Structure formats: structure tokens, C-alpha cells
């Protein structure tokens, strides 16, 4: 289980990417229906069944099989771990009968929607990765027990379906490389790690409800201000806004709302880095910061920042 969890994209720096493999024009991919022979070759991990009186294989590996139909999987109701990556699947409705699923990977297929709403039946599913498909929204996707969800490399444009009532236990959400232009619609108060790199996000909206969020990754978007950060984000420790269009100190003033908890900040590849005393101006806003970009905050930098803060406070009192 732990080896499979390592596949989930949740890196701190966000340098890895998930992309659907491209097939060359001259390369022919064999597409086929799922057969019992293929299933038998992919089965492993013999365990007791729920009543304790029988045994069944609970793990199935069907990646790279050229599948475009998985109807035959419906009768394998004891499967808990299933890998369907790198096939040609468009329909996941046969999964509805696999009600004991805990772990599901469907990366690099051609799924564009959740027809048949199979996930309504997968009430024990804790880990789901559907990176590199053709999803444009999340309608029909629910996960009452889901803790980690990876939808990187799709074409998702809106997040209206991300409600606490459908994803009450979600801790990590990966939406890197989609087509989002806003953060609005994420109503998940238990969420701790949110990865939104490589979208087209211009506005930070709807973040005030993310009270337990510790990691927010927004690298390579189109933000020109951090207005939208909220003082309700009382657990935020890591923020990455590398490669946006933050121009000056005014663009990052909203960082003060999370100054009590933020420990690591990545601002590199923004225009404001060219400003004189760039690091000092950031530390004045964030006196608790431990790391800025790739470098730890030095004692000398922190001392100078605190002196500047005290000087500014004295001047305000005189006024």
C-alpha cells in the first residue's frame, strides 16, 4: 500500500508533472476488451473475504493492456486495489460493483465524464488518481471516504462540485495542469494540501473556508496579486507562487494575513524579485518566515527585518 501511495503527486516544490503519453502516428496501439485471461494474469494478494470464511484476490493490475472496455471486471467484487493506467478507457461505470475498492489508479486514459456515477457506490475508496484524462468538470464524482485525489493533467475549468458533503475526508487535492482561472468553489474545510500549479489562475477566491490548509501550491499561474488569502487560513505553512506576475511589494501585502503560521514561501520568477531589498521587504511582512525561495532566512536578515518593523511602529505612534 505504501509503495502505491508514493505514486501520488504531492511534491513540495512541484517540479514533477503528470502528462498523458503521446502515441506517434506510426505507432499502432492494440485496443481490446477485457478478458478473463487478462484478469487472471493481473490478480494478486490473496486475502480473506469479509465473512472470514473464504479467500479472494484483492489486487488487480491491468495497466498497459490496451483496454477500451472493462465490463468483465464487474464480477470481481472483492477487489480493493486496482490499477487501470495507460489504457484507452472512456467508461468507468463497470466499477460500480467493486464496492470494496480502497485504491484506484486510472491515469492516462480517455475518460471525459463520470457516466453512470460509479463513484456513488465506492463508499470505501480512499485513494484515487485520474491524471492525464479528458475531464472538463467533476460532475458525478463523490468520495465520502476519499483522502487523496489526483486529477492533474485534465481540462477541468471549474470546481463547483468540490463540496464538503461529497468529500468530507479529503486531505490532499492535486489539480496541476488543468484550465482553472480561479480558486473559487473549493469548499473543503478539512483539506490540508492543495496543488494548483500550471493552470491559468488570475484570482484567489473562496479560500476563507480552508481553515486546515497547510500547503498551497500555485506555481506557474497568472496571479498579479495575492489578495484573496484569508486570515481564516490559520494552518498555512507553505506557499508557492513561483512563476506568476507579482510586480511589487503591494502585490504581496495580503501575505500579512497568514504571517503567524507561514514558514516557507517561494516567490522566485516573479518581477518583484528585481526590486532592491526584495528579501527584506518580504520578511517585514512575514517575520516568522523560516525559508524564502531556496534559501533559509539568516539570523542577520531576521534581525534587520525586526529592526525595520520596530522603527516603523515608532514612526506610526508619533503620527
UniProtKB/TrEMBL annotation:
The keyword Coiled coil applies. The keyword Repeat applies. Its main location: cytoplasm. It comes from Labrus bergylta. It comes from the Eukaryota. Residues 1-25 are annotated as: Disordered. InterPro entries: Leu-rich_rpt (IPR001611), Leu-rich_rpt_typical-subtyp (IPR003591), LRR_dom_sf (IPR032675), SDS22/Internalin_LRR (IPR050836). Residues 1-19 have a biased composition (Acidic residues). This is Leucine-rich repeat-containing protein 23. It holds the Pfam family LRR_8. It is found in: Cytoplasm, Cytoskeleton, Flagellum axoneme. Keywords: Cell projection, Cilium, Coiled coil, Cytoplasm, Cytoskeleton, Flagellum, Leucine-rich repeat, Repeat.
